[in-house]
Inverse folding.
């Protein structure tokens, strides 16, 4: 979720309700320890209302990761998560993220040193393995528990799959059964309250993590939470509400980033929301070509007017 779970996004989602723990954007230890002040501040920014929140790191050097974890603790972090599951080439090409699944012993050494370096809970996010021929999640989870990892999130796919195919709930259950007491959090294909219930029922997991589904439909978190809590469902969000949230998200981005970068950063949210907003392909492409602040505001005003009038977007 690097590039997505920044403060502007978290701050528009939390008021909807149902969100428990959220994570800041994934960071490498070099950025934490040696990064430029402004960019680092943007990545780590939070508010008193933005709680509870964890910080996620990735890398391969145990000492550097431990130093970064200590820095985060000294600067107010309450939970550290080690990413061992990111499938993106820019991460795995440096042997980090899901590439650690090819070297489980190194993953465990990394986790052990980070755990020993801080007094905070340290968790880990993994995938099933690098590919179908090297499923390591259950064995790795057992070893991560042994060195003190406090919780393990499992995405039910291999790195080779990326986001293709179906998440393997049976393999997540194997992880649940492999550990003794550490909570296992299920992740993958949770796009509805029904899918959330299925994840719990078929895996026995202690909790669930949402990612891509929430970028497309931020109300999903609220709807799942209400369903699991036995509360009545609320009416689906209207087109006007969806556009209003998008405008709010944009203005928060403008406040968070400098005006020169805010539009470019915000544009990444157009494709995930296009379907739910009912944007035509041509309209989506027009929005993706906008570079100026006032032009984006005008475009969002037009979307808002069209949503209120119930005309095509």
């Amino acid at each position: 979720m690097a590039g997505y779970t920044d403060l502007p996004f978290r701050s528009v989602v939390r008021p909807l309700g149902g969100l428990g723990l959220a994570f800041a954007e994934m960071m490498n230890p070099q950025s934490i320890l040696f990064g430029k002040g402004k960019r680092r501040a943007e990545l780590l920014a939070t508010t008193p209302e933005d709680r509870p929140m964890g910080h996620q790191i990735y890398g391969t050097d145990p000492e550097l990761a431990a130093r970064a974890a200590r820095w985060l603790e000294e600067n107010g972090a309450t939970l550290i998560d080690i990413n061992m599951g990111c499938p993106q080439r820019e991460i795995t090409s440096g042997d980090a993220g899901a590439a650690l699944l090819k070297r489980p012993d190194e993953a465990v050494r990394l986790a052990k040193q980070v755990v020993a370096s801080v007094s905070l809970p340290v968790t880990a996010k993994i995938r099933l393995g690098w590919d179908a021929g090297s499923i390591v999640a259950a064995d790795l989870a057992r070893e991560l528990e042994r060195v003190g990892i406090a919780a393990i999130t499992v995405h039910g796919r291999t790195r080779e799959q990326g986001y293709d195919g179906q998440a393997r709930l049976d393999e997540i259950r194997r992880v649940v059964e492999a550990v003794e007491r550490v909570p296992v959090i299920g992740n993958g294909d949770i796009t509805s309250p029904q899918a959330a219930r299925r994840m719990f029922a078929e895996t026995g997991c202690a909790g669930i993590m949402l990612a891509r589904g929430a970028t497309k439909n931020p109300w999903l978190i609220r709807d799942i939470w209400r369903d699991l809590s036995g509360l009545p469902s609320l009416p689906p969000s209207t087109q006007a509400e969806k556009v209003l949230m998008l405008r709010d998200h944009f203005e928060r981005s403008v406040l968070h980033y400098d005006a020169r970068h805010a539009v470019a950063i915000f544009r990444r949210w157009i494709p995930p929301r296009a379907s739910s907003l009912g944007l035509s392909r041509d309209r989506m492409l027009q929005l993706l070509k906008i570079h100026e602040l006032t032009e984006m505001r005008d475009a969002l005003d037009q979307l808002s007017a069209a949503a209120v009038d119930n005309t095509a977007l």
